[in-house]
Write a structure and sequence with these properties.
With about 350 residues, the chain is of the alpha/beta class. The chain has eight helices and 18 strands. About 10% of the residues have low confidence.
């Protein structure tokens, strides 16, 4: 009997190992260690694309497209999360979830049209229609809402999207909060109708009517009150400057922060591949690596989605992203924006 149980256990372990290896092979992930991590430090993600259906398309403001997606496979999410969306051309873009996390099987995103952008928003506005399928990856959250008895929220334009579910969560938790919401004009500011029921907790500041938001109100925050801000880079910089010393300031960027320093050429050693790659001053490490390893994953190319995060085995890193934590920066980098501070880096690739 004991022998039979041992054989059964070994057979089960072998089956699980075979299954894990198969999944890693299908996802392009390194085979060791097993089992596959949700987000391996190598940067290879086994997350599969989920086919979602666009069930609603609205325009909550001038130049803003709001899409509601449905699928029985959509995972749970928390306020502050964003997801990868694969556009019809194959472009991958990231959008904050702005619906209700309690509405299972349904996601809502909003896309601001940027005429002089990289093309993703133009494609979304032109081609994403009701009834179309839109592949998405499960949400990630680098902007989580920490528990607190009070909050100060600041949003600029489309930056209201990750803040909306935070307001719902803070209200349900009984927290004291305020929102300062700025934009070019009322007609360009999405979701004003959704904010109206919150009354005087929300201060709406259209620039064409009242100028820029008065951030001096942040100076009156109680000790430890966290500030959450999403919007254009100048607004976030102003919020950081206006917040009292010691105030926890949480920022969600949808454009990369300006990086200082001159770009210099350097050498990349790809340890597992046994290859050496030269990175020119005018190109990114990601571009250079993909010449040798064209299947290396990437997405935003701006340093804030984390898809191209890879482990660094040796060398000094010039971090130029706005995403990684101090701990992650000790032994990994984002290939799309970060570079070498030394002449040579060794990657676990």
């Amino acid at each position: 009997m004991r022998r039979a149980l041992t054989v059964t256990a070994l057979a089960g372990a072998a089956w699980l190992t075979k299954r894990a290896i198969g999944r890693r092979i299908d996802s392009g992930s390194p085979l060791w260690p097993l089992p596959a991590l949700e987000t391996p430090v190598s940067g290879y993600s086994p997350r599969r694309w989920i086919p979602a259906l666009i069930v609603s398309r609205t325009e909550p403001a001038d130049g803003v497209l709001s899409l509601t997606l449905e699928s029985a496979e959509l995972p749970e999410w928390a306020p502050g999360a964003h997801l990868d969306v694969q556009l019809p051309s194959g472009l991958v873009r990231q959008y904050s979830l702005c619906g209700d996390p309690a509405d299972r099987g349904r996601y809502t995103i909003a896309v601001r049209l940027v005429e002089d952008g990289r093309g993703g928003s133009r494609e979304a506005h032109a081609q994403l229609v009701e009834g179309a399928e839109l592949p998405v990856r499960p949400p990630r959250n680098r902007f989580p809402l920490v528990p607190s008895p009070s909050y100060a929220f600041v949003a600029g334009g489309i930056g209201i999207t990750p803040v909306l579910p935070m307001l719902r969560a803070a209200t349900e938790a009984g927290a004291d909060w305020t929102l300062l919401y700025g934009g070019r004009s009322r007609t360009s500011m999405p979701f004003l109708a959704e904010l109206a029921p919150y009354g005087d907790r929300v201060t709406v500041v259209p620039e064409d009517e009242a100028g820029l938001p008065d951030l001096s109100v942040l100076g009156a925050l109680g000790p430890g009150t966290p500030v959450y801000c999403c919007g254009p880079a100048p607004l976030m910089a102003a919020v950081e400057a206006a917040a009292p010393a010691g105030t926890p300031v949480h920022l969600e960027r949808f454009a990369p922060a300006a990086a200082g320093g001159d770009a210099k050429p350097f050498t990349l050693e790809l340890h597992r591949s046994g290859r050496v790659v030269e990175v020119a001053a005018a190109e990114s490490a990601l571009t250079a690596v993909r010449r040798e390893l064209p299947n290396t994953p990437y997405s935003c190319e701006q340093g804030f989605c984390g898809t191209c995060q890879h482990r660094v085995l040796a060398g000094d890193i010039d971090h130029r992203d706005t995403l990684l934590t101090d701990g992650e920066r000790e032994d990994s980098m984002l290939l799309c924006v970060s570079r070498a501070a030394s002449d040579r880096l060794v990657l676990d690739l």
